[in-house]
Design goal:
By secondary structure, the chain is of the alpha+beta class. The protein is built from 3 helices and 19 strands. The longest helix has 45 residues.
Length: 322
C-alpha cells in the first residue's frame, strides 16, 4: 500500500470520527431539549384553559420538537448564539519570568532587558525601547505597573506604546515626573502631541499602575485607577504594543493586553533615524531641546539649543543656576 492510499484511509477515518462525535453531541442536546419541552408541556396543559391562544402556539412548537428533536435543538442553539451577549475581548497576561520570555520581545536597544520577571529599560543616556513581537492589535488596552528609579537629572519618563506599525510609527503615552502626555509618532516627527495633563502625584521609586486604551479613534489614559483624559485621533489602525524609557531607568511588570490579538505576519521594520545627535548632554542634566539652526556663510550649520535637567529646570542643589 503506497503513501497516497494510506493518506486517503486516514482522512476517511478522521471524517468518520468527526461524524460520530457530531451525532453524539446532537443526541445529548436533543435529550436535554426534550426534557425542557416536557416540563413546558405540563405547564401548558395546566394553564391552557386561561391562556388558550398563546399556549396553542406553544403546544404546536412542542409537537414539532418531539417529532424533530435534533432540528429543534440546533435551532435553539442558534437562537441562543444570537440573543446572548458576545464574549468579552481576549485578555493576555504576558509572563516576563519564563526562561525564554525575552524571545517574545524586540529589544531595540542594548539597554533593554528582562530581569527577575521585569522589563528593564535603561534610558538614562538615550531612549531604551521594547516591542512585543508575537501579536498585534487594533482596539486594545495596554495595562502594566511601572517604576522609574529616582535620580536628580532627567524627566524620568516611562512610555506605553500601542498600534506600533513599525519602530517609528505608533501612539504612546509619555509618563514623566509629573505629566502624562499622549503623542503620535511617525517616521518624520516623533512628537505629534495630542493631549496632556500636568501636576500628577507620581513619585519616582514607587510602583504605578497605568493604562492606555485605544478603541476606534478614541484613546484613554489612566493612572493608578483614575482616568486622566481621553482624546481622538484616527491616524493609526493597528500594530504591536511596547514600552520605552527616556532620561531614566524604568522597570515594567504585570503586563496585560486586552483586545482581539492578530498574529503578526511581517517583519517589524526599524526605519533609519533621519537625524544625527549634535549634543546629548551639555552638562546641565541631559535635557536638550528647542533648537534653532542657521547656515553660516561657509555652508556650516550652527545650532543654539536649550540645556537643562527637565522641561523647566529650576535651580536645585546639584544645579544652583538651573
Amino acid at each position: 500500500m503506497n503513501l497516497t492510499n494510506i493518506d486517503r484511509l486516514l482522512g476517511r477515518a478522521a471524517m468518520l470520527v468527526c461524524a460520530m462525535f457530531y451525532k453524539t453531541v446532537i443526541r445529548v442536546c436533543s435529550a436535554c431539549f426534550l426534557s425542557c419541552v416536557d416540563g413546558i408541556s405540563r405547564i401548558a396543559l395546566a394553564a391552557g384553559s386561561r391562556m388558550s391562544k398563546p399556549w396553542a402556539s406553544a403546544q404546536r412548537l412542542i409537537a414539532f420538537s418531539r417529532c424533530f428533536p435534533s432540528t429543534a435543538a440546533i435551532c435553539l442553539a442558534a437562537l441562543l448564539g444570537v440573543c446572548l451577549p458576545q464574549a468579552s475581548a481576549e485578555e493576555l497576561s504576558i509572563d516576563l519570568s519564563t526562561e525564554n520570555a525575552a524571545q517574545d520581545w524586540i529589544l531595540l536597544d542594548k539597554t533593554a532587558s528582562l530581569e527577575n520577571g521585569e522589563l528593564v529599560l535603561d534610558g538614562r543616556k538615550e531612549m531604551s525601547r521594547a516591542f512585543y513581537q508575537p501579536a498585534e492589535w487594533g482596539d486594545v488596552t495596554l495595562r502594566a505597573k511601572f517604576l522609574v528609579e529616582p535620580q536628580a537629572k532627567g524627566v524620568l519618563a516611562c512610555g506605553f506604546v500601542v498600534r506600533a506599525a513599525d519602530a517609528a510609527t505608533y501612539y504612546y503615552v509619555h509618563f514623566d515626573r509629573a505629566q502624562a502626555i499622549l503623542v503620535r509618532s511617525d517616521a518624520s516627527v516623533s512628537w505629534n502631541e495630542i493631549k496632556r495633563v500636568s501636576g500628577l502625584n507620581k513619585p519616582a521609586g514607587s510602583w504605578h499602575d497605568a493604562q492606555l486604551e485605544c478603541t476606534g479613534q478614541t484613546l484613554k489614559v489612566s493612572l493608578n485607577g483614575k482616568l486622566l483624559f481621553e482624546a481622538k485621533d484616527a491616524t493609526l489602525k493597528r500594530g504591536r504594543v511596547g514600552f520605552y524609557a527616556g532620561q531614566g531607568k524604568a522597570h515594567v511588570k504585570d503586563v496585560v493586553v486586552s483586545g482581539t490579538a492578530h498574529k503578526t505576519t511581517g517583519e517589524f521594520k526599524i526605519p533609519p533615524k533621519p537625524y544625527v545627535y549634535v549634543c546629548t548632554d551639555a552638562g546641565a542634566g541631559g535635557y536638550e531641546a528647542f533648537p534653532d539652526v542657521c547656515r553660516l556663510s561657509d555652508g556650516r550649520l550652527m545650532s543654539v539649543f536649550y540645556a537643562g535637567y527637565g522641561h523647566v529646570s529650576l535651580p536645585n542643589e546639584q544645579l544652583p543656576k538651573g
